Amino acid sequence: MKGMIHMNDLVIMKNQQAVTSSLQVAETFEKEHRNVLATIGGLLKNKHTQHMFAKETYINEQNGQSYPIYYMNRDGFTLLAMGFTGTKALKFKLQYIEAFNSMEEQVKLPTSPREIARLALQANEETNQRLDSVEGDVKDLKENQVIPNPEYSALNRRVNQRVSEVAHSYGHITQKQRGELFKDIGSGIKKIANVSARSMLRKKDYQMVMDFINDWEPSTATKTIIRQTSLRFDKEPA
């Protein structure tokens, strides 16, 4: 049975717009990602839908390979999810609607101190709410913004480089062993940043994550798995 889906995992901010990804949709609705990509491809044949989807790539943490992914806004998700039926699908659609509403409401928050002060005084003139507390809320919102795409891409490139550096120290290494290294470093990144997926990394955590990648070494468990795999490989008859 699929576990509870948290709203914060469904919708993210990207290019100043609330969006979700084809990968997240596939996971939430328990569908094959390639089938979701195929459905989006069909939708994109209509020129009126092309502004609703943006194609990018992501790094699979299991094998380190690049794969296509689509990001979509609320309209794109609505079109895509029209074909998802059933009680469970309806529940997830409602969760997505709530997540989009929540994220879009955050975007509407005032950004300038003067605007914040004006709205705060209008809302409650009698208590004369302190400006610095409101600014603190805005600062917290900004600090929790999802990492921008250039920085996200830089982190992924450094992950690939660091895994290659560590893999080189082992000499001959199989694709499966390399996959264990990607799994190890990916798990570490998510753990220190307290996120469920690398695409959810926060802007404020960029330098901390980059420092972790630069210093990363595989865990003892991962080293043991690689060593055991190498022993089995060496024992196989030529």
Flag low-confidence runs. Answer: 1-7
CATH topology of the largest domain: Arc Repressor Mutant, subunit A
Beta-strand content estimate: 5-15%
CATH class of the largest domain: Mainly Alpha
Total number of distinct structural domains: 2
Q: Main sheet: which strands, in order across?
A: 1-2-4-3
Our measurement of the CA-to-CA distance between the termini, rounded to an integer number of angstroms, reads: 44 Å
User: What is the overall silhouette?
Assistant: globular
Q: Characterize the main sheet.
A: 4 strands, antiparallel
**In sequence order, what are the helices and strands, one letter per element?**
HEEHHEEHHHHHHHH
Helix content: 55-70%
Class inferred from helices and paired strands: alpha+beta
Q: Residue-averaged pLDDT, rounded? A: 82
Number of helices: 11
How would you characterize this protein structure?
The chain has 238 residues and is of the alpha+beta class. The chain folds into 2 domains: 10-104, Arc Repressor Mutant, subunit A (Orthogonal Bundle); 147-231, no CATH class. The chain contains 11 helices and 4 strands, in the order αββααββαααααααα. The chain has helices at residues 7-10, 22-28, 33-43, 74-81, 87-107, 113-123, 131-143, 149-169, 175-193, 206-215, 220-235; strands at residues 12-14, 17-21, 53-59, 66-72. Strands 1-2-4-3 form a 4-stranded antiparallel β-sheet. A hairpin with a 2-residue loop joins strand 1 (12-14) and strand 2. The longest helix is centred in the middle third of the chain and has 21 residues, at 87-107. The termini are far apart. Residues 1-7 have low confidence and may be disordered. This is Phage regulatory protein. Residues 118-225 form the ORF6C domain. It holds the Pfam family ORF6C.
